[in-house]
């Protein structure tokens, strides 16, 4: 029996199996489970977050960064951790694919490569159907709204150092002159004072008009009667304006058929972004993020 056991132990195959068993048991006893595959563990600590913040901002001011990190809300801190973890995942995946071979590029470039690869999965998706396009258009109609526009000229009288009554009298008399002389659109520059912005406005959006004159002015301008004559005065933050409106269009949402090309492009870009998000989320799901909070 003893001789047989000695013979058995002398077999190379058995020795190999026993050695493997010993090494496996030793590994399990010495190394905790979390460190067996360190590739899928991301450690986030104060130093890493501070370095990440400064790298993203492209300014290296440790004290300022530390103060900003300390004053962050829990939500902002978690968002910073998520951003760091996302970049770390993409970096490690890029290294695993050996994207850095024979290419002296920085970590950011590797992350960008992984993002590009993730977005590339979009090519495997079928083009959106007409039904999908119409549904996207229905859910995002406001994105295709065309602004109200106006073509008009104005004669400006500023508040200046005159008393309000005198200014209003000047404006009233000037309006009478403009009407009596039937001053045309192109000759408005002969009257009034110099305005901060433009004299004539051709097919300008309501947003631009508000930017130059204020919201109250724009509301009154688009509410004026549709007559081809001088009207006003309309008051702005700068003074009074006598206006002659040549053309106005209201804000509208064009029908689907008129913007189908734009809708197609927007739908495809949304799908690309979603494919990219899903691909990166799948990569990140393989990792465990360990956050080590500082002692406070």
How would you characterize the largest beta sheet?
Answer: 4 strands, antiparallel
Structural class: alpha+beta
State the name of the first-level CATH class of the domain at 149-249. Alpha Beta
Q: What share of residues are in beta strands?
A: 5-15%
Helix content: 40-55%
Second rung of CATH, namely the architecture of the domain at 149-249: Roll
* CATH-defined topology of the domain at 149-249: Chitinase A, domain 3
Question: How many DSSP H or I helices?
Answer: 11
Cα separation of the termini? 66 Å
**Overall residue-averaged pLDDT value:** 82
Q: Quick one: how many beta strands?
A: 6
Topology as a string of helices (H) and strands (E): HHEHHHHHEHEHHEEHE
Overall, the morphology is elongated
Strand order of the largest sheet: 3-2-5-4
Which spans have pLDDT < 50 for at least 5 consecutive residues?
A: none
Over the alpha carbons, how many angstroms does the gyration radius reach? 35 Å
């Amino acid at each position: 029996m003893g001789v047989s056991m000695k013979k058995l132990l002398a077999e190379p195959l058995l020795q190999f199996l026993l050695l493997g068993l010993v090494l496996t048991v030793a590994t399990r006893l010495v190394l905790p489970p979390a460190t067996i595959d360190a590739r899928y563990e991301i450690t986030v600590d104060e130093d890493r977050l501070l370095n990440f913040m400064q790298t993203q901002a492209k300014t290296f001011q440790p004290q300022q960064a530390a103060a900003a990190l300390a004053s962050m809300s829990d939500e902002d801190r978690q968002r910073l951790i998520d951003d760091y973890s996302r970049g770390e995942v993409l970096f490690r995946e890029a290294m695993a694919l050996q994207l850095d071979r024979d290419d002296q590029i920085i970590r950011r470039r590797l992350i960008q490569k992984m993002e590009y690869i993730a977005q590339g999965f979009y090519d495997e998706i079928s083009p959106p159907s007409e039904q999908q396009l119409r549904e996207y258009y229905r859910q995002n109609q406001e994105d295709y709204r065309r602004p109200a526009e106006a073509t008009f000229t104005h004669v400006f009288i500023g508040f200046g150092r005159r008393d309000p009554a005198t200014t209003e009298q000047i404006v009233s008399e000037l309006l009478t002159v403009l009407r009596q002389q039937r001053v045309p659109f192109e000759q408005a520059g002969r009257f009034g004072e110099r305005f901060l912005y433009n004299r004539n406005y051709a097919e300008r959006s309501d947003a631009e008009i508000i930017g130059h004159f204020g919201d109250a002015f724009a509301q009154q301008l688009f509410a004026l009667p549709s007559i081809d004559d001088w009207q006003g005065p309309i008051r702005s933050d700068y003074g009074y304006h006598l206006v002659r409106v040549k053309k106005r269009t209201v804000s509208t949402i064009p029908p689907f058929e008129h913007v189908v090309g734009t809708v197609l492009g927007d739908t495809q870009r949304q799908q690309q972004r979603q494919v990219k998000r899903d691909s990166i989320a799948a990569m990140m799901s393989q990792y465990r993020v360990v956050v080590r909070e500082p002692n406070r």
